């Protein structure tokens, strides 16, 4: 897979998550949703919950940019 930033071929591997007291989750919000303002932005902004849980996740690492791209399940 090519890096989305620089185009360098990325290394495929895994990322391991470790829970440290309590459950954790993150939300993904598209840039187009972030641009919504006022009441429309406050009440109708759509997000996708990304679960953070122990286990291995498929990932790619760019040796040039030092970035990691993870392939994770979303809770929808």
Automatic annotation (TrEMBL):
List, alphabetically, the Pfam families matched: DUF6487
Q: Where is the DUF6487 domain?
A: 3-73
What's the domain of life for this entry? Bacteria
Quote the protein name from its UniProt record: DUF6487 domain-containing protein
Organism of origin is Blautia luti
